[in-house]
Amino acid sequence: MPLRLTLRLLPVAAAAWITASVCVFLPMVAGVLAIACWAAALGAIAWGVVRRPADARLRQAIAVAACALALAAATASHVALAQPARAGATELAVDGGRAIEVRATVVGKVERRVDGSLAFDALATRIAVGDVRHAARVDVVVRVSPGDVHPRSQLDVGSEVEVRGTARGGRPGDRAVLELRASRGVDVIRPPQQTAAVTAGLRRGLVAAVDDLPGDGAGLVPGLAVGDTSMVSAELDTAMKESSLSHLTAVSGANCALVVGLAFFGAAAAGAARALRVVAGLAALAGFVVLVTPEPSVVRAGVMAAIAMSAVLLGRPGAGMSILSLAVAVLLVADPWLAGSLGFALSAAATGSLLLSARPLARGLERVLPRALALALAVPLAAQLACGPLLVLIAPQVPLYGVLANLLAAPAAPVATVVGLAACLTAPVPWLQDGLAALAWVPAAWIAGTATTFSDLPGDLLPWIEGVPGAVALALVGLAAGVVIAVRRSSRRARVAVALSAVVLSTVTGVVAGSGLLTSVGGRWTLPQDWTVLACDVGQGDAILLRSGDAVALVDTGPAPDSLTACLDRAGLGRIDLLALTHFDLDHAGGVDAVVGRVDTVLHGPTASGDDGRVLEEFARGGAQLIASRSGLSGAFGDARWRVLWPTARSRAFPSGNDASIVLDVRGGGIPPTLLLGDLSASPQRALEASGALQPPYAVVKVAHHGSADQDAALYAAAQPGLALVTVGADNDYGHPRAEILDALTGLGALIARTDVDGIVAIWGSGDAVSIWRERGG
Known about the structure:
Helix content: 40-55%
Number of strands: 25
Mean pLDDT: 82
Low-confidence stretches: none
Structural class: alpha/beta
Number of helices: 25
Radius of gyration: 28 Å
Distance between the termini: 55 Å
């Protein structure tokens, strides 16, 4: 089919997507835009009916334009009609830490975040602020500590819950109108009912069936089969992302195709007519979507499969891109907020790239590779070229071995998916379920091994340009790579295009290789040589290095080993004399694997669980001396002295966690007077200020809890900070750092440095003569 016909419905999807994007980010224009699009659509239809052009192409163009305008109008109308209810919810006085109670129904998977909290999407039906109750029907997102859910076992899709805590308005473009922080807990009022109860039970049954199986493969089986990643460890999740295999646990088009195909061909083998085969395929698809929960990628794949099956029923199977375009447009009309979903964009981009470029890439690769290998490589290469520019918006890095990892994992993925799904559905027969789960473990273990092997290879992640410029640059690089591989050198114009593309690729390869050298082996040359305090840019978390002569201390490890390893490599550090783990939340202790076996002494805060104890045992096995902190404890590294100011010994007022995190006073040996406040909230800050333990003025104060609003201004006034250091992740879900604390620090005359804006921050000097260097800004 000519490319023009293949892409004939692409303007329809583009119009719906652009309109949805504009309306969800600027909802005040949705009504006007809807009226304008409806008028334009009717005008195009009227013009085509009255003029009746003889040219078939012109008639087709008019029909496509009318369809695009009508779907754009429907998308804008949806936003306009939903806006009054959404605006009413956001106008409630929910900011500023006011208590709020929300009755809601869970509509999205309950997932664990990097900081250890649980997050899920819900549909709010009642909002209470103070004594006033408001009826509502708006989308919210809830975050809660696992220990604050009662009962935890009943929290699943379909549960009715009561959320107590604080709230703030959702970010522009998000489906969620409110972001709820359930600081006072989540009570499950009613567990999932009927169909939701059955599917929840099936998912839990699969998780239980693989619980006793060894290694990382066990945790992957539920993810591959039904998208349940609750058993995937943080380390394996990181490895899957670094090796570009995380899409395998996000149920999408491949899974839907397997389910529909099995049902369709099963019906055919039973002698069913075409109509019954299609009905069987659609029924299986509907059940699968309900079972795995309707995530954006699943919904997109499900709608696309339904449209394709309908076309088969009518005997007019359309081109793949036309089906994809229509599916995207229909979904955006039904849910305009999908326009801002990165998962939805990745799913559509990967599918489109496979339809358009996999075959040309395979033909190009056949010039140098056997045909079977060329076909196998073309699929992951097409997906990676399309998805890479979107993924660098999340993390500015490119997985170097992603295509090869996908090539090795590809044969195992469908086997693990089909057998794992069969294990899920055979829950009523335990012995059969256990056997199928064990069989599914074999290919799942292969995938897990592939991920960890490639993520451990040197240079697995290439640093890239951040933000939109990085996405555009990688898209151009992908286009150049596609031209070099796929374009035939049959004409002078084609040869010139290939030559220019090869120059682009060569230039980028040199720049990326040089950047990788500077951020790893040669990284120490890019930092000030005299730094004594170094705040690593590890995202939403803390990792601060202190150096006195040849001795090095590290305060917290950030949320993930890789980001800490990158910082240590750049600073040229191999051994840590003192590690202070202020507390054991993931954003402070999630990166411990990067330094286990490399630490002489571990100073740690109170433990709260067996997991905390296991972390310390691992350090002890690696040769580290363990020291439990208490106020008044002191010590030295190099010529610098450290002193613990908090927590007080045997205090019951502040349980382990944020409010019992270690507060350190470090000074001397080239380190300016530095106060590191951990994650203390306002209440323990007041107690610390009243204790008289502070020795102001402090040249450097690490702001507590990433700049949250729960701060005591009097503590900072007493500390007299010269420089306020905020360790915080860019575009985090908490709104950190909050304006209240930034204004308070500015009012005290403190200079502010923040890792989300400045990147790595280096500090050196003594007394009042302190110098600062910012990675982004010097």
